[in-house]
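Our consortium's second objective concerns turning raw sequence data into structural hypotheses that experimental partners can test. To show how far this objective has progressed, the report includes one record in full. It was chosen at random from the queue rather than selected for favorable results. The single chain below, 321 residues long, was entered without modification.
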Amino acid sequence: MSTAAKAAPQKTVLAAGTVPWRYTKSGGIKVLLIRRRKHNDWSFPKGKLDKGESLPAAAVRETEEETGLDLALGTTLGTINYTVGDAIAKTVQYWAAHVSAEHFGDYEFEPNDEVKRVKWVRVEKVRDRLTYPADQELFGVFEQLVVAGAQDTFGVILLRHAKAEPRGEAFTQDALRPLRTSGVKQAQTIAPVLAAFSPEAIVTSPATRCTETVDPVAKLLEITPRLAPEVSQDTWDEGDVSGLRELVNEVLADETNAIICSHRPVLPDLAREIAAVNRTRPGRYLTEATELPPAAFSVFHISKSPSEQGIVSVETYPIKA
């Protein structure tokens, strides 16, 4: 007797979530799990994207809606894929998200329509608590980071400016070229995506096309950008990268999330300096992270541990012109 092949899912749903974690007073690690009302299961906070929303922004929003925690995204943990019924395929992207002692001290969970309970579970007990094998497999990535001492990271975002007006008689000075109308829209589009990583500093080339690119996210986060000629194309064209090297060292020394907005030919040198300072081997991944179209960016997640981990992960976000 032959068995009919199972039909392929007719719809794919994108979702995003986080693995919130914190240090205990003894130096251990606990992870936040949620118990959902509808399914009565133990899992991580996650949810579907709203229309036009990005994966990072959805992860932050869903975590806050389900748990009350307003968190910055840490290193990416990858995706899980599963099928709901016979017609829906679901893909969920996850990030680690550190809950600071200060944030945890003020935190009180309030049950809501989706989540009836949360529980902080010791990292070594989490796998047994999780209801679904896919979540257990995803959590294995976080466990590996803990073993390596690389779960606590900060992010350096290398951003290429948005689409600018072309060189020509109207703009005799390259640095004064503004964004095109499409570039202005790009800058507005990426602002909430960048904000999901909670940058605390914005460093930008003083070129108009760069300052206009970071303006929406700077206003959204109420940050005053720092103008840095060291990462301008004019300085790079002169062959001077000493200032660029010093700036990268300074940004990395702060160990806080930051945006560096620059130009296509400058981005590879910025990435190489980030790798060099973190004693991370260069490779094709640096090229892939810096071959960016206008308004695209890459997030370098860097371990705060003095171990040899260095760059833990890199994720890249292109944007349609």
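The partners drew two points from this record. The first strand starts at residue 11 and ends at 23. Residues 153-317 form a domain with the Rossmann fold fold (CATH 3.40.50.1240). Both points have been shared with the crystallography group to help prioritize constructs.
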